[in-house]
Each structure stands twice: as structure tokens, then as C-alpha cells.
Design brief:
Chain lengths: 266, 335
């Protein structure tokens, strides 16, 4: 159970600030979705939180512990990361890939213990990968591969899950399958989950909290109904939309207006 | 019992049989029936017969050196392919071969004759040249922080091209020594004795163990550098360790046998077919296959032409090339 508190965080590169003064709290058991146009800073924020990029200013704390003061070793135990595109260069089998989630705990040399193997088994079962255990990861479909990465994150026993576009390149069914799995893992294990999405309707359906990025800053935070409004979306994405209601769930349903009306263009 | 462990056991068995056959064949054949007698003579320490002399003084050290060198090249290849996440990487990809060649060409041209620790001047030059080349590449590429792996490969190619040109220049200017240099460049195990074996054994042993201990880190790199980092892999330390192990293995192999191509490229590929991609198995399998391939190639090199020898580098490429093509033809899925 750890809340992730981001305070006044600015991130980017020494020559270019991408995001300024972000203050945001992610609660355990909740799915926080980052939305924003290309280049709005979603990936930069992820890379800062995962320690790939040093923050330009500000700080973030996990359960009252400042991340800046955590060693790399402690940090990788707390955080599991799914980067935007993760390569799979060699045909490791699914089980071998999931086992690597134990590396932050067991290190790189010593053999895994019985307990490690139990944790790996649990993670494989929880993500329904039992039948694919011996399959080379290079032969998996996109959806199966995301499940392997999630299983590895479970094996890592991380408290925070950072997923950069976990649905990229997936078909409708697998988008929902992966997000449903993320959502139920987040609830069951009280994980603090932050993910970025491109699809506003997916965000409306799966997010507990949405953080909208644009103009180098955090534009809005709140429930899907609060954030997914016509004016905020047009401000963040630069395109007018019309908001409907999902006929079954009642969540916002976003219909983009692709032909500009008179007076709105330019 | 784990299937992969069984395969490793099987490979070890085949290697032992190959060693036994290699001991018997050659310009003088030692048949199975003569073997006990000859072995008794060797173990008594009183070696008089020609059989015993050939076996003990010439054949056995050469066979063992072929195995060690082959294992070193196989493992260096597996390590570099893992590090660069590139199936085309081989032990010479970051300048080891051209550094060694330049060192040797320089020593031959200058006519240096000293020996040290059982190494000839040429072996020493190969060892030092190959390590220096990798160090240069590492320092040159280290300046670029964003893409260290690609920079390493590019710097390796650039330095190799430059040093190869230097070697060619040395060969043309000193055409009377052209054949000596060329012969060394083709790789050979001819005339190697226990002294060379003793000198390279500890180096190769250290390199093999080091690379094997890096197995899990190499596995993690299959997900890309970013994910490996989020699993806690410290890039600088890891890079330095893999490069040290790989260049130590390559330098030892090159100093023992010259530049032998192809072993380090194809053995990891065959090994991946047999035991999968996990480096804890892939590395020992590459070692066993490398030993086997170089031993068979050397057996052919010393027997196929009757009394004259072929450079073993020619044999590894002539055996390995077609076999590799056959593997590519039968490849299933993605490698």
C-alpha cells in the first residue's frame, strides 16, 4: 500500500523542459490514466518516475519516502515498468522471461530460491499464461506479450506499476483484455497504477482518475466525467469533440469532429 | 531431469568421443589396439616410441588447445551477440581481430623473437593488440551517452577498417614477409605445445566463468536496455564486465591460434536451437559446440591434405558456412 505523491515536478532534458510543475497523487488500488497529445510529456514523466531521467526540479515520494533518497536497488523493487515498446530480441521462453522479475530481489548471479519460484508460478497463473509457459516470447501475439510483461511485474512484487501505452498496436478485444487485467490486478493487490493511453474512450471506461497533460503542464485531474469535457479535450488535443454517454456504463463517450466548422479553424 | 541439462550432457559426451577419435587420427594412426600400450608408456613417463612421442608431445596438447580456443570463441560470440542484441555479432565485432593482426604484423616485420610465459612474440603481440583495440573502441564510443551499444559497433567497424589497412600496408611494404603474416592471419594450431596450453588455460578459464556469471544480466537485455535498467541492471558496470570477459577470451584465443573466423558466429546460433536463448544454458552449449567445431576443423586441416597442413581458419569457414546456410533454410519462426 503506497501512495505516490508527485510534488511540483518538472521534467525533461537539460536543454528542453517538457513538463512544468506537475503536482499529482496516485492512490493505491486506483488506476490513474495519463492523457495528452503526442509530445505532451507522458513518456518523459514515466521515464522520470522510473529513474531513467533525473527530475529537473521538484520531487516525488512513495509512502512518504523520497525517491531521490532511494538507491537504485530499492527503487527497482518498488517500481515495475512497461516501456512504450519493449523488445524481445531472443527467444527466451515465457517462464524464463517472467523469472527475470525476481532479479531486483535476487540479484544477477545467485540462483532463484524456492520462494522465488513460487512467486513466479503465482504470477504466471494470475495472468493465465500457464499453457504458454514454454513458448518462446518471440512467437507470442501482442496481447500475450503484454500479459508476460504484467506477469514479470507481478513477479517483481512492485507496489507501483508504470505502463506506457500498454494497448499500443493491439486489436479491440486485446486492448480491453489487457486493461481489464491491469484494472483487476490494481484492485486485488492494491497497486498504484499509472498508465498512458491514446484512446480517450478506453480511458473513459477504465480510468479511476485521469490526468490531462498539455501546454507543458498538467491541465486537469479528476474522474473521467470531470476531465473528459469538450473544452478540456479541445484544449489538450487541438480538435473539437462532442461528448455522448456510453449506453451501458454511462461513462463519457468521445466523438471527434473531424471537419472543422466555420469560425473554429485556424 | 531437466531436458536442457541432458542436452548439455549429451554434447559433452560427443565432445569426449571427438577428442578420442582426434587422438587416434593423423599422419601416424594410433589404432584402438595400440592405444593401451602407448598410454602405459606415456603414463610411466618414459617416452621412447614414436607413437607415444607423437601422441603426448604433439597431438594431445594441440587437441586440448583446439577445444579451449573453440570454447573461448563460442562463448565470446554468445556474449557479444547478447550484449549487442545482434545475431550478426561475433568475437571480432569490436576490433579484436584487426588489433591482433596489426600487433602480429608489426612484430613479424620488426623481426622480434623474444618469448615470455610460454608465449611467442607473435602470441604476445596478438594478445596485447587485441585488448588494446577493444580498449580504444570502448574509449572512443564512451563519449556518446545516448546509444553506447550502436556507438561501440560503429567505432569497432571504423577501427577495424583502419587497422586492416595498416596490416595490408605492412604486408605490401614488406612483401618478403607477406606469406608469414598471411599464414598467421588464416589461423593455425600447428606445432602448439603444452607451454602454449598452460599459458592460455587460466585466461580462458577466467573468461568462461565470468561470462557464465553474467548470464542473467544478458537475459534481461533481451527486453532492451530500458527495461533491463528498470530491473536494476547497472549499464556501465555490466558493459565493462561483458567487454572484459569477451575481449579476454578473444585475445587468449587469438594469441593461441591466430584469427579463426565463424566459430564465434555460428556456435551460439546452433546452441540457441538446442537449448534455447537463456544464457545460463546457451553459454555452456556454445562452449561445447565451439570446442567440437574447432577440433573437427583442425583434425581435417591436419589430415585432409596428407602430409601438408591447411590453415584451420579455412576449414572452420568451409565447414561452418554451408552448415549455417542449412540452418537458415530450416529455421522456424523468428530467431
Amino acid at each position: 500500500m503506497s501512495r505516490l505523491e508527485i510534488e511540483n515536478l518538472s521534467c525533461g532534458y537539460p536543454t528542453r523542459t517538457v513538463l512544468k510543475n506537475v503536482t499529482l497523487t496516485a492512490e493505491p488500488g486506483q488506476t490513474l490514466v495519463l492523457l495528452g497529445a503526442n509530445g505532451a510529456g507522458k513518456t518523459t514523466l514515466f521515464r522520470t518516475l522510473s529513474g531513467q531521467l533525473p527530475p529537473l526540479s521538484g520531487s516525488f515520494q512513495l509512502a512518504d519516502e523520497d525517491f531521490g533518497s532511494l538507491s537504485l536497488k530499492q527503487r527497482v523493487r518498488e517500481l515495475a515498468v512497461m516501456p512504450q515498446s519493449e523488445s524481445r530480441d531472443w527467444p527466451l521462453c515465457v517462464e524464463e522471461a517472467v523469472r527475470l522479475g525476481r532479479a531486483p530481489h535476487r540479484g544477477w548471479v545467485f540462483p532463484l530460491t524456492k520462494e522465488d519460484h513460487q512467486i513466479v508460478d503465482g504470477a504466471i497463473k494470475r495472468t493465465c499464461l500457464d499453457e504458454l509457459r514454454d513458448r518462446p516470447i518471440t512467437e507470442l501475439s501482442g496481447g500475450e506479450w503484454r500479459r508476460v510483461i504484467l506477469a514479470r511485474a507481478l513477479a517483481q512484487k512492485a507496489k507501483v506499476l508504470l505502463l506506457d501505452e500498454p494497448t499500443a498496436g493491439l486489436d479491440l478485444k486485446y486492448q480491453h483484455e489487457v486493461l481489464h487485467l491491469v484494472q483487476s490486478l490494481t484492485h486485488d493487490r492494491q497497486l498504484t497504477t499509472i498508465l498512458s493511453l491514446h484512446d480517450l474512450n478506453l480511458a473513459a471506461q477504465f480510468a479511476d482518475v485521469i490526468a490531462l497533460l498539455g501546454d507543458e503542464e498538467l491541465i486537469a485531474v479528476g474522474s473521467p466525467a470531470e476531465v473528459l469535457t469538450e473544452s478540456l479535450i479541445e484544449r489538450a488535443f487541438g480538435i473539437p469533440v462532442s461528448i455522448l454517454q456510453h449506453p451501458v456504463y454511462g461513462s463519457p463517450l468521445i466523438a471527434p469532429l473531424s471537419h472543422w466548422e466555420e469560425g473554429q479553424s485556424g | 531431469m531437466n531436458r536442457k541439462v541432458l542436452i548439455l550432457g549429451g554434447l559433452s559426451g560427443i565432445l569426449l568421443v571427438t577428442i578420442a577419435i582426434s587422438v587416434m587420427v593423423g599422419s601416424v594412426t594410433v589404432s584402438l589396439s595400440q592405444f593401451p600400450e602407448t598410454w602405459q608408456e606415456i603414463s610411466s613417463g618414459q617416452i621412447f616410441s614414436s607413437h607415444a612421442t607423437i601422441l603426448w608431445k604433439l597431438r594431445l596438447p594441440r587437441i586440448l588447445l583446439a577445444c579451449l580456443t573453440g570454447a573461448a570463441l563460442g562463448v565470446a560470440g554468445a556474449g557479444y551477440q547478447g550484449l549487442f542484441r545482434n545475431p550478426l555479432a561475433d568475437p571480432f565485432v569490436i576490433g579484436s581481430a584487426s588489433g591482433a593482426a596489426f600487433g602480429v604484423a608489426l612484430v613479424i616485420v620488426m623481426g622480434v623473437q623474444t618469448t615470455l610465459f610460454g608465449f611467442s612474440a607473435m602470441s604476445l603481440a596478438a594478445f596485447i593488440g587485441s585488448l588494446l583495440a577493444v580498449l580504444c573502441v570502448f574509449i572512443l564510443a564512451g563519449r556518446n551517452r545516448e546509444t553506447p551499444m550502436v556507438s561501440l559497433l560503429l567505432a569497432g567497424v571504423a577501427l577495424s577498417t583502419f587497422l586492416s589497412a595498416c596490416v595490408s600496408l605492412l604486408m605490401i611494404v614488406n612483401s618478403e614477409k607477406l606469406f608469414v603474416i598471411f599464414g598467421w592471419l588464416m589461423g593455425s594450431l600447428s606445432g602448439r605445445s603444452w607451454a602454449e596450453l598452460q599459458a592460455v588455460t587460466p585466461l580462458i578459464a577466467v573468461g568462461l566463468v565470468m561470462m557464465w556469471l553474467l548470464s542473467r544480466s544478458l537475459d534481461a537485455l533481451a527486453f532492451g536496455e530500458e527495461t533491463a535498467a528498470t530491473l536494476g541492471l547497472g549499464r556501465k558496470k555490466f558493459l565493462a564486465l561483458v567487454l572484459s570477459a569477451g575481449s579476454l577470451l578473444t585475445a587468449a584465443a587469438v594469441s593461441a591460434a591466430g584469427i579463426i573466423g565463424f566459430v564465434g558466429l555460428i556456435c551460439p546460433h546452433i546452441a540457441r536451437r538446442l537449448v534455447g536463448a537463456r544464457h545460463a544454458y546457451l553459454i555452456p552449449a556454445s562452449a561445447l559446440l565451439g570446442a567440437m567445431l574447432l577440433l573437427i576443423a583442425d583434425d581435417l586441416a591436419r589430415t585432409i591434405m596428407g602430409n601438408s597442413e591447411l590453415p584451420v581458419g579455412i576449414m572452420t569457414a568451409m565447414l561452418g558456412g554451408p552448415f549455417f546456410l542449412f540452418l537458415l533454410k530450416t529455421k522456424r519462426g523468428t530467431a
